[in-house]
Design a protein that fits this description.
The protein has about 140 residues and is of the alpha+beta class. The strands form 2 sheets. Strands 2-3-4-5-7-6 form a 6-stranded antiparallel β-sheet. Strands 1-9-8 form a 3-stranded antiparallel β-sheet. The protein has 3 helices and 9 strands. The chain is globular, with a radius of gyration of 16 Å.
Length: about 140
Amino acid sequence: MKATISFDELNGFVQKKTGQNVTLGYVSPDTVKVTYSAKMRFVPPVSIDVQVLRISGNDVELAYSGKALLRTALDFAKELFSQKLPDAVTWGDNSSVSVNLSKVKGLERTLNDIDLRSIAFDQTGAETEIAMKQTIKQ
């Protein structure tokens, strides 16, 4: 089964949940550009490219890259994710991060019933491929 969500929907969701101006945009079928715009006018927007490297079970491994202001933005992002998802996110040493989706509040029950197979991007948004788990309850 395939499920799609537009970048507009994703951007609205992130804004609603975090109160931050974060936008996602297409780079390639496995990569999105994530741009953070501070609420202060004198701070320029900071962008990083996030690439989906691998999906294994409930773990999604991502790689990130960006420009000079990246270190400051990443420190902010790491702190934010450490507070919001302390058990779900593991930061690697080589510009990578692993997210265990089963440890994200609200996804646990959903992941009992489905397997995430892939995530791909196009000009309008993201498409996921999922499969129903074949479990028999007794």
